[in-house]
Design the sequence.
């Protein structure tokens, strides 16, 4: 029982990491109906930036927000340069472009930083603390806390500020918003910037566990896909809940299902994706869509 | 008959020239280069399959590397465990993969293009670890080593008569691949120009309109998936036989991306496109890797990084630039350029006659 609790806590921590990246996917999906296949690679690149800052003597807790700002600017820059020319292109074109972006960023990171895995510092110790009879590590609790704060901040921004309201309006009714004086195109860029910043949180949180190298996010992005699909790809709340459910499920499956073990955890994510899409395509929190003729 | 040949459009002559070029190629290049061109043809088959799915039926798969893996392993297991003749295993592997693709297409029916991209991408990422699991069957991490293939005496004698040298295994594999490529390209050409192809294009261009016109949406979508997987399976089977070795890491996500790059570069919804795309996708990383180490001014440390990262950067840049500036790929650029040239040659009078230019899809 105690072990089960421990596994659940550590699953929630991993889930927080998935949730940040899934939330980034949802932000861009809401802005333009697109799944950004480059989201993980963007987070990976931001993590390399964070490492460079820390290596140059910057304090972890200063480097963290600075990285988020850089990631935000980078996300806006990518949207302006790469996505803007094809904003109204068919979905196939956009998907292929984000895949190209993923390949490009992956190659660039390898080019600049090399392929040797690097240790990434964590501000949290690996010591454990006893909560309700379960031993949880400060590392896990710290990840849960940081993810929680970031997710809450995004929620507040979207639901309780004018900028958030404008962004949601631009996504839902671009024509009407434009008539009301909203710069719809810039709201898209803002969405990309926010997504990039939120996604980079997941990169920074996962790097101490996985070691930092250009392919670090390749599996995390699959879990984030699973989380976003499970929660309903247009729902920010769904992304968070989905992330936690996927984190806990994958963790428990790896420990308690002998045929899954460590190496087939990714297959669990695939099973979740296919299962949800076939049985409940709108996810837990999504609204059923009506096709317009 | 003679009249028909004389009146056939210039592109038919181009097809004949290309086929003769590929038949004659191994007699003038070395055995190693023949194995490289065999790889190009294998890629071309897989890309043709992806093109049927993406270009003609408007669905997307980012997981065709996984279907190639299934084909390659089907062939390798049949040859290695059940001592089957390698030539027999190629169509078996293709049909098996096609059936799996067809079954995968059934749940895919309910998915929008975006979700399908997600699911197939996840499939491509997961496949290597799935292959490792049944280790007695697939050889686990080590993979399966296949026996070398000897050219049959008839082909070998014919080859010796032409070139004066003995036929190597690589050259024989090249001709086997070429034969399959020719048949599969011919089949694809027929497919897209007849009922099924028209139905698929109708679905791509407007699903609701197609359904209203009586097209069986579910049937043709899964059919496209099945056929596409069949092509990938045959390509994978040939790949395993040509390399003589299959392992889980032979089929990484990068392979699926490479196939997509080839499809997009050559040109979506075009028959010659996959061949051009395959030549590009195969030779780009090799050429850049051969060029970089010869440049002595580049420090060796950077050169080794470029070798690893270079293809990814180039693939990425090419994908983005092509999708932004030339969504119809190289073939699109060529046909557009040719049409412009012809219009200019014909003169202004014809230009102003108000006639619509012929549709490159059907014309």
Sequence:
């Amino acid at each position: 029982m105690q072990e089960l609790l421990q596994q659940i806590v550590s699953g929630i921590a991993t889930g927080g990491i998935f949730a940040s990246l899934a939330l980034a996917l949802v932000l861009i999906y809401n802005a333009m109906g697109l799944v950004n296949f480059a989201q993980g690679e963007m987070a990976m690149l931001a993590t390399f930036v964070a490492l460079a800052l820390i290596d140059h003597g910057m304090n972890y807790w200063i480097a963290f927000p600075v990285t988020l700002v850089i990631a935000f600017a980078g996300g806006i820059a990518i949207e302006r340069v790469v996505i803007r020319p094809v904003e109204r292109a068919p979905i196939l074109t956009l998907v292929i472009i984000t895949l190209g972006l993923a390949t490009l960023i992956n190659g660039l990171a390898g080019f600049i930083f090399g392929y040797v895995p690097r240790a990434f510092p964590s501000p949290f110790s690996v010591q454990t603390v006893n909560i309700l009879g379960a031993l949880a590590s400060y590392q896990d609790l710290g990840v849960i806390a940081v993810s929680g704060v970031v997710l809450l901040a995004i929620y507040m921004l979207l639901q309780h500020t004018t900028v958030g309201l404008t962004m949601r309006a631009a996504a839902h009714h671009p024509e009407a918003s434009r008539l009301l004086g909203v710069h719809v195109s810039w709201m898209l860029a803002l969405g990309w910037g926010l997504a990039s910043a939120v996604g980079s949180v997941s990169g920074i949180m996962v790097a101490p566990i996985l070691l930092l190298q250009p392919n670090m996010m390749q599996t995390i992005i699959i879990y984030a896909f699973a989380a976003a699909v499970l929660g309903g790809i247009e729902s920010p709340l769904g992304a968070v809940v989905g992330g936690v459910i996927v984190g806990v499920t994958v963790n428990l499956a790896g420990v308690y299902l002998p045929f899954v073990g460590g190496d087939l955890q990714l297959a669990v994510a695939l099973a979740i994706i296919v299962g949800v899409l076939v049985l409940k395509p709108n996810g837990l929190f999504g609204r059923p869509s009506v096709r317009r003729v | 008959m003679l009249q028909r040949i004389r009146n056939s459009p210039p592109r038919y002559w181009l097809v004949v020239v290309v086929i003769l070029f590929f038949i004659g190629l191994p007699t003038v290049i070395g055995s190693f280069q023949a194995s490289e061109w065999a790889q190009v043809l294998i890629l071309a088959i897989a890309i043709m399959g992806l093109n049927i799915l993406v270009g003609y039926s408007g669905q997307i798969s980012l997981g065709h590397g996984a279907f190639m893996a299934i084909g390659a392993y089907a062939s390798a297991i049949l040859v290695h465990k059940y001592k089957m003749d390698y030539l027999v295993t190629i169509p078996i592997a293709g049909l098996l993969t096609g059936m799996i693709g067809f079954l995968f297409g059934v749940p895919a029916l309910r998915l929008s293009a975006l979700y399908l991209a997600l699911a197939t991408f996840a499939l491509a990422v997961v496949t290597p670890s799935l292959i490792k699991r049944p280790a007695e069957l697939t050889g686990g991490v080590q993979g399966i080593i296949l026996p070398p293939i000897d050219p049959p005496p008839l082909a070998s004698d014919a080859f010796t008569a032409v070139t004066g040298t003995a036929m190597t295994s690589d050259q024989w594999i090249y001709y086997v691949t070429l034969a399959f490529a020719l048949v599969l390209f011919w089949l694809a050409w027929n497919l897209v120009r007849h009922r099924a192809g028209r139905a698929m294009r109708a679905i791509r261009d407007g699903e609701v309109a197609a359904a209203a016109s009586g097209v069986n949406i579910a049937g043709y979508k899964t059919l496209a998936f099945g056929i596409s997987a069949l092509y990938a399976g045959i390509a994978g089977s040939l790949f395993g036989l040509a390399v003589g070795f299959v392992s889980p890491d032979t089929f990484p996500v990068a392979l699926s991306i490479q196939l997509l790059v080839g499809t997009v570069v050559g040109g979506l919804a075009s028959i010659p496109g996959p061949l051009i795309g395959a030549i590009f996708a195969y030779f780009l990383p090799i050429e850049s890797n051969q060029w970089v180490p010869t440049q002595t001014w580049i420090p060796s440390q950077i050169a080794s990084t470029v070798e690893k990262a270079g293809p990814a950067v180039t693939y990425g840049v090419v994908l983005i630039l092509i999708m932004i500036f030339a969504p119809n790929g190289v073939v699109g650029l060529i046909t557009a350029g040719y049409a412009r040239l012809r219009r200019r040659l014909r003169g202004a009078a014809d230009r102003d006659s108000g006639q619509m230019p012929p549709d490159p899809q059907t014309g």
